[in-house]
Each structure stands twice: as C-alpha cells, then as structure tokens.
Amino acid sequence: MKRIFSLICLALAVSFASAQQLPDVKVETAQGKIISVRNLSQGKPLIIAYWSIACKPCIQELNAINDSLAEWRSETDVDVIAVSVDDARLKASAKAIASSRGWEFICVYDENQELKRAMNVSLTPQSFVVDAEGNIIYSHSGYTPGSEQELFDKVLALKKKKK
Questions:
Q1: Residue 101 is part of which domain span?
Q2: Tell me: the pLDDT tens digits for 130-143?
Q3: pTM passes above 0.90
Q4: Tell me, what CATH number does 72's domain have?
Q5: Burial class (CB in 10 A: 0-12, 13-18, 19+), 114
Q6: What angle do CA 80, 84, 88 make, to 5 degrees?
Q7: pLDDT for residue 67 is more than 90
Q8: What is the three-state SS of 72-139?
Q9: Domains of the chain: total
C-alpha cells in the first residue's frame, strides 16, 4: 500500500512539474544584485538546483554538475542555477562555499525562501529542468552519484525534441 501511495505521489509530482511555469520571484546574485528568476532562462534550457550549506548531498551534486558542465554546455547550451535556501544568517557562508568550490554556474540566494515556496521545494537537494520557454519539465529530489546525468539526459531530450 505504501508503495502504491508513493508511486501516486511521484506521478502527481511529475505531472505538476511538467505543467508548471518558472515563477516570477526575485533572488539575490553573488554580487548582491536583485534579479527575477524568470529572466535567467533567456531562451536557454536551465537546470535549477536547490542547496544549503548543511546538505552534503547538495554540494556533491553541484560539484558533479560543475565537473560535467563544460561538456554539457558544448552539447546543449544549458545553463545551471544553484539556489541557496540558507537564511540571512548563513548567506555569507553559502557565498563563501560557492566561491571556494569554483562553480562555473550562476549562484543565487533565496534567503527568505520565496522561490523555494513558489516552486514547492520541501527538501534539498531538489533539481529542476526548465525548457527555453520557462516551463518546468522535470523535477528530481535527492542525490546519488551519477544521478546528475539524468538531469542532462532531460536537457538532451529537449534539444532532440526541438530539432
């Protein structure tokens, strides 16, 4: 019974994610500039990954994405947005971690967790794939080594679908 309930919840989450548009919520960049999340796609597919400083799997996922990012960009022109959900007290630590890791993607800070609520994120890590029109087409919670490839496969499918 629990398995059936879990499958139903998963199906609902996937169908919800496929119908949802990227919300028009403002976040702060590493440089302190306030921007709208909707403006980040700029006609490109996006991977949006939620993380916090206390979440080791989040940081592992972002490191794995960063390791593959040059190849992914050459094949698909994908952009990655890492959204820190750490509050105002921890934002400086989150910025320091992002800077020290050398991540080659955009890091934004959702200290009031408005974007997190708008996208129905309950736990980190959670990642989304967004198409060039701002439609959320895929959502994934949790991280195990290698699962970042699933995100890239969804972006590749977008590219093939566009052709």
A1: 2-162
A2: 999 999 999 999 99
A3: no
A4: 3.40.30.10
A5: middle
A6: 150
A7: yes
A8: HHHHHCCEEEEEECCCCCCHHHHHHHHHHHCCCCEEEECCCCHHHHHCCCCCCCEEEEECCCCEEEEE
A9: 1
